[in-house]
Amino acid sequence: MKVNVDGVELELPAGTSAIDAVFEAGGDVPYFCAHKYLSPVGACRMCLVESGSPRKEKDGSFVMDDATGQPKIFWFPKPMASCTMQATDGMHIKTARSSEVVAKAQAGMMEFTLLNHPLDCPTCDKGGACELQDRAFEYGYGASRFGFDRRHADKHYPLSDFVILDQERCIHCKRCVRYFEEVPGQEVLDFIERGGHTFIDTEEGGLPTGFQGNITDICPVGALLDNVARFRGRNWEYDHTPTTCTLCPVGCSITVDARNGRLERIVARENREVNEAWICDAGRFGHAFASERRLTVPLVRVNGELQETSWDGAIAAIRAGMAGRNAADLALYLNADSTLEEGVALEALADAMGTRHVDHWPRYEVALDAMPNGAATLSDVATADAVVVVGADLGEEAPILELRILEMLRGGLLPPEYTHGTAIADLRLVERPARDPQKLAVVGKESRLWGHAGIRASSNGHNALERLSQPDTAELQAALKLLTDSEKAIIVLGADVLNGASGSFAAQLSDLATRTGAKVMAIPAGANSKGLAALNLVPREGGLPYARVAEAPAAFISRLDPGVRARGLTIVHDSHLTATARLADVVLPAVTGYEKRGTTVNLEGRLLELEQAALSAGEAADLIRTLSAVSEALGLRAPVRGLKGARDLAAQRLGIKLGGLPERGVIHPLRTAHVAPTEQVYTPQLWTERMQPSIQTLIPANLQPLPMLGAAPVGGDD
Ligand code: SF4
Ligand code: SF4
Ligand code: FES
To answer: Where does the 4Fe-4S Mo/W bis-MGD-type domain start and stop, copy by copy (predicted)?
Structure first.
């Protein structure tokens, strides 16, 4: 269809909204309530445009304009909200660029929105990143005609431990309310009262933990603030580092905001293929540990006590500790959130040392990457017509996958892809979008997803899959029927079913997938388990798995905390003094996942890049540099000494070129190279002990007391 925007004619797909048409034409429309991943509501009235369409005669021909010889355009008498209007063939749209009426209407609307706004800009956390501030400059009158005392409402009003609401600043765009209804499917927030008294609040009990932090990203003003980050800095003071979250295998795109070397804030970064615009609460709020009580220098044990030393001192201590032993006696264990490059470096060193004791953790001991219908992507999940989740607690294992499944339940309409604008998938104004729970079956233990599933079957352990294949209850029969009857079905597998699964499990799954035509998404145990599984990072013949670290003659343990030490020399590489580090002979300071460059592979098999945020980590080093130091102590030349060397080796080993990946990552099917028994059950836990939040300790003493709970604000000002 052809649409004319400010005199520019363009070709657009049918169903495009008028606001998108403007952005596609390279124009601009101010908006507050519209949001790419939420349904349109037309609440803020900022996106006004003039619009007109040709009209047809009874015989189907166009009413013609005598002056131009073209179809006559019949204009709506008043400006219209473009976010709730569908562009139609032949439509003409005028924005403020070409219409004085629109410019005046928008300036008037801005004046109205600011009528009772507190104008906290000098103190508001959102200052410098506020849509209202920006649009007031661009589209407002520049001066206010109102000199009266503004309405006052609650400030610093906690909706939960994590989210603070400033009711005065709220412009009633309803994004936060719609988000809860439409994305996690929780009706917990709403408008209370009417007219000038309207405010946002929750039911008693506050916001549910899981995905609540996303409302702080989408609030267009500073009304909803991240309590872990607020008052920590202004937007322009932060170093913004786009990177990937390594807390779970989804690998959400995030931006790490650091100030003066401290990690102050994490916000979601859009990645349409992975996390869309959302991240989970652990990913957003669980970062304080990264700048708290860090190890910044190496430690060595002297007379039974750990004492600070230099890297040279630590290398000498390793050399002394390994005296009389072979390099082959040193076991090497790394966390499964380590990057591909780190894994490649560790494997190369293990080969050079000749050690059999190598492992990464957490992992499962079954390879599931050869399924007949291929591996499902997150977009496949969102657009599937049936999902059967077996043995997974997504809240702990892969939270954003839960949101993508909920997206599937409400129709799986992904927003169209535009370079600009507020692509909106569905222009029907629907409150509380209908969900179809019959498209979701959950087999396993009770979890948050149960509440959304139409078919629920209790079953524990890895025989859940066998029971699903040969159903012995009505629920399991219904789940199998759902898989069989659907054209785009997905089987999602989680920890409960993957723990202890062996080769016969893979065969069973493959058989089920063949029978039903379903794609498979097996949730890996660690953030980069899928990447590391493509390397030979499992015990070699006669080697000790990570579960038996206590039997190892000597061990190097990178960012794992088994709570025991090896029989002989124990070297721990970690960012914090964990229980294991306290038992170690040598502790080498490690960077966190926010401070290194490298590549991880998410649950879809998507390669995603990590970038290094500007955090003060003292002398902490990533695994590649640390392994160089260990090699030096062992008298070996490190086979890999830096990121480039690791990438070159990865290219040879895996046939992939790392570095310079597209922002959304790329899917690259990596096959599991080797499997071996783990001898240990993996229990997924998203909020690890070190991340446990304590809002009180997170807020520095000089900022307390905050007028949060109880204290009634006087006059409404800060
Ligand atoms: S939301 Fe904050 S920054 Fe924006 S105009 Fe209001 S007070 Fe100023
Ligand atoms: S709190 Fe923010 S997102 Fe929610 S309605 Fe108010 S301005 Fe909109
Ligand atoms: S009415 Fe708010 S963006 Fe259109």
So the answer is: 238-294
